[in-house]
């Protein structure tokens, strides 16, 4: 990847003396095959195709349930709103030519890496699909599946199809996140020349487009799969599959989504932080130049990384979170309805889809509530963007409470327990409150308006070592409050569900686990707005980079700096939100796994005794997996950063005119180095995550066979999953919070505190920031994807453990 010829041969003069030019990272931009096919269709053919698709979807929905029709309608309307948001954002001007050139370079680099990365992921997905097919062709069937006539072959093909569909939708979710960010960044930069509020509105609406598409796809994908299986398998007909068993067929969808999300997060995280660390260590620390300075050869790679690491990966991540939570809640709802002999169980099974349909509605209102201010200018006082975003979130929370209450009364009312819906509504409130508290805790520990980050910044004034010590201690401390909140939420929701009045045939309460599932749904009932705030961060970060590289006035950079600092906080808060929801979702998936083992083994499997040596070893292996995975992820960033540091140093030595603006850096070389390294480095930790539970379960299954313990493999995997979840939650909280705090401590000093930019305090803070980069954007986010993937893979692979 080389710079354009005219750039290489440009006359040696100051950047400001002539129009700025930047390299194209690819000869042409990249679009996925499906997008290219749709573009080549004429309008009439596309209209006919859409009508036929909608007709087929609504036909299956009508044959399944009116609830499914409602879900389809809401999702399609949300897609229409996302189209409106896209057109609104793209209608904004891109600014002067130098901004456009930088944005094009970022977009080409991001799309090029996306194509290569997802090409690699797709090959691995097809390989894993073949493995799943082979396993399912020779596995045992549950008594329910045998009674319904669902053979091994049919079960195998259904699971593989669901896995591939989940992987495809997760990939599309990632592409949507990146597609909007690489187009909105330059428009936010241009708007910052006029007013901070306009720039904020564009960034929020761009993030809103991505959020609505991601959540809408997760909901409609599961709804289509559910209705297709319902109609195709003739569910609830005499002698065939019962509707309460149908959600188990969707497990493959969640596994496919988790698989893609893990590798997207790993590859994107290694890319963005390898480039960021390399750029900061040489540019800021060694050369003393500002962040995103055009003289830094790694600056374009750094800005590309914001899109592939924070936007594409986060889109796939939240898609997977919602899919896993919906499927696990549907399984538990069906199991409870079956035990309680509820006459029409469809409400309990489809309740998660309705909750997230309302999420699309209320989050849309929250997004649209953030508007520009008339007559604002670049010289107007900068309103705190966090306050504006918080107002929108508060409005969304209030609407979530109202719609959740309506949903529980509509779908969870049953004559057997007339007031059960009220208990489940209270479970939802527990989840909503938990989400709000999680966001507040994460903000407290990562926003420089509060004491923890300011104390960390103060530690920078005494050197690099004290900065690192303070950051590590802050991260460790930050795990306490979230764990207490999760503990209270799980106990409260379980108790409310257990006292709902729903009983099985023996008179035992059965609503506890479903109550926890409802609390998880409550926590994720504002997921679209939370993802909007998360997407806002990297868009604002990219906008600041474009402003700095195009050498805009200092007043414009001040606006983007404020947006960037808030973006760091929103990214940290949404990561805390994601960890909390992952903890609850993993608890549900763990319960679903135990139910599935019971169904396959045809014996009760309710407890895991860690006093059994083999089971305890499984727990140790699960805890070890988290630490080893984290080590490999951080080491991957370190090795990538070393390559970038060496390349940037080489360019500064061989092209001394770079520092005087007399020679152009070779941006493309750094992009190529980081892309190649990220693709290479993501394989080892990803393979560890996939192979470990399968290998452990299979080995202990064989051991159990020879020692007369038929369920040993399943028990050891359950212990592994349990310990990995507990350790993973704590590790992810520590890494995400410490990394976010280090980043904002640096931002706080850059506002002029403790000596400001270039001071010794600032250099120490930059060191802390570089240490925290792989924590918060690679290892931390990957871990909470990992613990959910471990849960889904054990669900899919449960038969080989028995």
Quick take:
The chain is globular, with a radius of gyration of 26 Å. It is 78% helix and 0% strand. The protein is mostly helical and 802 residues long.
What would the keywords be for this entry?
802 residues, mainly alpha, 24 helices, 78% helix, globular
SSE blueprint:
Elements: H1 5-8, H2 33-40, H3 43-64, H4 66-90, H5 97-137, H6 143-148, H7 152-192, H8 196-232, H9 251-286, H10 299-339, H11 346-368, H12 385-411, H13 420-446, H14 451-460, H15 464-477, H16 480-498, H17 512-523, H18 527-549, H19 554-601, H20 613-654, H21 667-681, H22 683-707, H23 712-750, H24 760-797
Describe the structure.
By secondary structure, the chain is mainly alpha-helical. Helices cover 78% and strands 0% of the residues. It is built from 24 helices and no strands. Helix 13 (420-446) packs across helix 19, helix 14 (451-460) packs across helix 23 (712-750) and helix 18 (527-549) runs antiparallel to helix 19 (554-601). The two termini are 52 Å apart.
């Amino acid at each position: 990847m080389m710079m354009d010829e005219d750039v290489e041969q440009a006359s040696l003069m100051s950047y400001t003396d002539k129009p700025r030019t930047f390299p194209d990272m690819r000869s042409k931009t990249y679009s996925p095959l499906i997008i290219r096919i749709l573009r080549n269709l004429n309008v009439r053919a596309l209209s006919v195709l859409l009508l036929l698709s909608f007709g087929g979807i609504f036909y299956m929905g009508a044959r399944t349930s009116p609830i499914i029709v409602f879900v389809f309608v809401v999702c399609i309307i949300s897609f229409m709103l996302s189209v409106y948001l896209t057109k609104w954002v793209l209608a904004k001007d891109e600014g002067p030519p130098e901004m456009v050139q930088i944005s094009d370079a970022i977009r080409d680099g991001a799309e090029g890496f996306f194509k290569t990365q997802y090409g690699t992921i797709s090959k691995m997905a097809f390989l894993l699909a073949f493995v799943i097919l082979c396993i399912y062709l020779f596995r045992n069937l549950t008594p329910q599946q045998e009674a319904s006539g669902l053979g091994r072959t049919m079960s195998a093909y259904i699971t593989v199809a669901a896995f591939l569909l989940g992987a495809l939708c997760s990939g599309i979710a990632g592409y949507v996140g990146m597609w909007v960010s690489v187009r909105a960044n330059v428009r936010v930069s241009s708007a910052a020349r006029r007013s901070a509020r306009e720039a904020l509105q564009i960034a929020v609406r761009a993030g809103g487009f991505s959020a609505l598409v991601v959540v809408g796809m997760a909901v409609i994908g599961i709804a289509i799969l559910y209705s297709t299986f319902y109609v195709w398998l003739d569910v609830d007909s005499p002698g065939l599959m019962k509707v309460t068993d149908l959600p188990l067929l969707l497990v493959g969808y969640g596994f496919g989504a988790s698989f893609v999300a893990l590798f997207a997060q790993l590859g994107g995280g290694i890319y963005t932080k390898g480039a960021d660390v390399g750029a900061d260590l040489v540019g800021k620390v060694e050369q003393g130049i500002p962040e995103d300075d055009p003289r830094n050869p790694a600056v374009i790679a750094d800005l590309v990384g914001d899109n592939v690491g924070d936007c594409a990966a986060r889109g796939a991540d939240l898609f997977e979170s919602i899919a896993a939570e919906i499927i696990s809640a549907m399984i538990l709802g069906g199991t409870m309805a079956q035990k309680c002999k509820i006459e029409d169980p469809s409400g309990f099974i489809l309740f998660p889809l309705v909750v997230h349909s309302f999420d699309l509605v209320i989050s849309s209102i929250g997004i649209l509530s953030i508007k520009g201010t008339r007559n604002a200018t670049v010289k107007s006082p900068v309103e705190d963007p966090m306050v504006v975003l918080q107002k929108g979130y508060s409005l969304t929370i209030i609407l979530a409470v109202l719609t959740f209450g309506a949903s529980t009364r509509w779908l969870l009312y049953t004559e057997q327990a007339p007031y059960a819906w009220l208990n489940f509504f209270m479970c939802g409130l527990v989840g909503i409150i938990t989400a709000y508290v999680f966001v507040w805790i994460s903000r407290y520990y990562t926003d420089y308006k509060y004491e923890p980050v300011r104390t960390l910044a103060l530690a920078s004034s005494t050197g690099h070592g004290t900065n690192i010590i303070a950051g590590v201690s802050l991260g460790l401390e930050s795990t306490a409050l979230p764990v207490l909140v999760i503990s209270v939420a799980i106990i409260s929701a379980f108790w409310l569900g257990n006292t709902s009045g729903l009983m099985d045939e023996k008179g035992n309460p059965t609503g506890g686990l479903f109550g926890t599932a409802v609390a998880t749904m409550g926590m994720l009932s504002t997921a679209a707005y939370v993802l909007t705030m998360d997407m806002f961060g990297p868009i604002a970060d990219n906008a600041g980079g474009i402003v700095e590289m195009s050498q805009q006035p200092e007043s414009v950079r001040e606006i983007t700096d404020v947006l960037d600092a808030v973006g760091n906080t929103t990214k940290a808060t949404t990561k805390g939100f994601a960890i909390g929801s992952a903890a609850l979702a993993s608890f549900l998936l763990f319960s679903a796994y135990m139910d599935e083992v019971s169904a396959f083994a045809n014996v009760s499997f309710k407890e895991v005794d860690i006093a059994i040596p083999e089971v305890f070893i499984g727990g140790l292996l699960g805890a070890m997996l988290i630490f080893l995975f984290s080590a490999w992820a951080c080491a991957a960033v370190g090795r990538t950063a070393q390559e970038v540091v060496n390349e940037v140093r080489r360019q500064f030595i061989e092209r001394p005119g770079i520092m005087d603006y007399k020679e152009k850096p070779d941006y493309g070389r750094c992009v190529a180095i980081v892309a190649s390294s990220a693709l290479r480095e993501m394989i080892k930790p990803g393979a560890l995550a996939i192979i470990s539970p399968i290998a452990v379960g299979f080995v202990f299954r064989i051991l159990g066979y020879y020692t007369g313990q038929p369920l040993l493999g399943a028990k050891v995997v359950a212990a592994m999953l349990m310990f990995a979840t507990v350790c993973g939650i704590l590790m992810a909280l520590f890494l995400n919070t410490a990394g976010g705090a280090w980043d904002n401590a640096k931002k706080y000093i850059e506002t002029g505190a403790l000596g400001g930019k270039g001071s010794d305090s600032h250099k120490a803070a930059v060191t802390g920031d570089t240490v925290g980069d792989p924590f918060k954007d690679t290892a931390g986010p990957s871990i909470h994807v990992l613990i959910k993937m471990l849960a889904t893979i054990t669900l899919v692979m449960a038969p080989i453990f028995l």
